[in-house]
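Cont'd.
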Amino acid sequence: MTITTTADRFLTDFHEVAQIGRTDRGGVERQAATDADRQTRDWFVAFARERGWAVEVDRIGNVFARVALGEGAGSAAAGAGSAILSGSHLDSQPRGGRFDGAYGVIASLHAAAEVERRVRAGELSAIHDLVVVDWFNEEGSRFAPSIMGSSVYTGLMDCEEILGVRDLAGTSVREALDGIGYRGDTAGPAGIVGYAEVHIEQGRILEREGIELGAVDSSWYTQKLDIEVFGEQSHTGATAMADRRDALVGAAQIIMLVRDICREFTDETLVSSVGQMTVEPNSPIVVNSHVHLVADLRANDPAIVQRARDLLVERFQRVAEEELLEIRATDFDVRPNRYYPEAGVALQERVAADLGLGIRRMQTMAGHDSVAMNTVAPSVMMFVPSVDGVSHCEREFTRDEDLVNGLRALTGVLAEMVGGALDGVAYPGAAPDARAADAGRSDR
Amino acid sequence: MTITTTADRFLTDFHEVAQIGRTDRGGVERQAATDADRQTRDWFVAFARERGWAVEVDRIGNVFARVALGEGAGSAAAGAGSAILSGSHLDSQPRGGRFDGAYGVIASLHAAAEVERRVRAGELSAIHDLVVVDWFNEEGSRFAPSIMGSSVYTGLMDCEEILGVRDLAGTSVREALDGIGYRGDTAGPAGIVGYAEVHIEQGRILEREGIELGAVDSSWYTQKLDIEVFGEQSHTGATAMADRRDALVGAAQIIMLVRDICREFTDETLVSSVGQMTVEPNSPIVVNSHVHLVADLRANDPAIVQRARDLLVERFQRVAEEELLEIRATDFDVRPNRYYPEAGVALQERVAADLGLGIRRMQTMAGHDSVAMNTVAPSVMMFVPSVDGVSHCEREFTRDEDLVNGLRALTGVLAEMVGGALDGVAYPGAAPDARAADAGRSDR
């Protein structure tokens, strides 16, 4: 089997999976634990079973497929021994893109198949098994927060609490996973000694610079604000303007404050938007009494996010006073900067050089499952270019040749990792010494 | 039976009906064609049947109860002959007040019972029957537009079209009415020669001036704007601020423009709010691509509404250009000023004087079923005070003694109308000559 046929098979599978939950404009609608999500999981399981890989579903609905490669792999029961994990997520945003997440899972499956072929052919020796994963609910659109499956697996979130989270229709994660037949009872594979993920960039940097690959060395500091605005219901026709206490008028000012705060910092050092909003009672002729909003604030520098957050909360109170409303803002989903191990970044650079592909170091503004995994094992995060930098929309696009470049690089990285290339490497998370070690980098 | 016992029975019934769909803060949740709405209808039908009144449900779910009083009433089949109609609506806004609408229906039932008693006792002679009505979906919160039942009955709206209107969950009016067993097949009673309705003011004028009754002489000019904002979905974390085309940011500016436009006109001559809003895809980490808003604009002077509307549409386009969005605004539900017959206003004043109650002429800013009825029969609209002027909320309140004053005045008006007091009176609607006749009034 040559690289070319592996690439062809990968592309065929990638475009086939993009048909599941396909939207009219070329995106996909596969929110977590919906029927479309189930179909992609069934496809993943079938791919693994055809190759004789053992499948495991854990208690939060992560699906794992184990390729037995390591020492004693032939005799050990599935799940025993050390392993390298690789994957991403098959769920999508509402009317999301077909690349975000799915690319990383399908690339991992094909990379794993190629690594297995090389080991079986005696071209490569492995001391670890390889496990491919489809993480549950990375997107967080149906069930908040995002990065749910990998956060439970790594112990960053409590499993029972997360199983009780409900969507806007009142369905719990537990019920939804039972509904699609993907709630298992294990804690997932033990003995994971490394993780690798490939993903589309979702920004413009690689495209603008004409570089094939991005080696992610750190993630931005992010937090959300949960904001509630309380006014009083009244009649849009009969109530005097002076007597209206309109929660929607307060919410409108909050949306603008959240957007405009970015202008008070250096361009693109802070990004911030309100994404989710619910309005009550939401009737054409009623002044609204209650609005709930979720704002998302991100910067590389935590001090910028904290300053913006403080300014916003102060300004919300001014709006509350002027409009005779009550406004409450609560911090949640605070995620510190995370630093990927230098050895993993360097490994990506070596593999790219071997393949003759350009690579640069970069940061991720978006959260990824690898950010969670990097708290329990040395993790590698790799980007391929996104056309126009757009993501979380149907227009999201990455060219086939860039997808294949990412697959080749991931295959190379996994081939090294199953051989022990990152064994014993520190995975510093947000530890101060890692941050200090990072400080001298030229691209910060 | 004395007026006092009639008042007691009325208050008992009024407070009993307020238990149906009761909310924890003393309001009611009885949106059109829900189970709570069905329960009030069942109560209405039981009230009528106990008294031997014939009940009719028309094709749009209005419920009529006919009190046979007129000449030949004893022998004619129910529905034959001329009649005076009186009523309002039992449906509510979401978490609405217990007075809005329900007061007028229950007062009409008790007024009709008292008029019947007087006729049977030989104290009063009637040439018309009396029909009490519970109009379907006056509120328009679940199914838009509002004033649905009386508008279909009077031919202002097309029945088939309205039966096809769907709520946000996709249920049609037809399905919802079938679901509660209140879709009939008649066009409602023929031969209606007059209409009377009593309602809470929903404003502060009567309370501020300490006057018991308001005789409504006209309604404000109203219109709605249906506004759609289109942007592009992207990632709240990974997309550069400069690349975001956030429909919610456009919507926020529209909400503020709609509110602030009122400040460009004399205080309280224009009222305007956005009541309804839907956001897509409404996920915490997605920049929204589509927002739909409904704005409500009202003034006594149509030129003010039209000027405000033109300024708003022009400003929306500026927002669209600045934010790289597409914004479409469409006029709908335009309702011209309506003028109630002078003879009906004068009748209310005579009845109030006989009862020793204060009364003033006034306008209605809110729409009412009487506005629709006034296009087909001379109509009388009467207000009682609202505490603090608040309505469409759980805090809506009118004191028992004001409710009883309104009941007594309505009884007096209906007693005159079944005797022919408004027979042959012109019901001018928005006809120019009516407006000219109105122009000299001192309280305009």
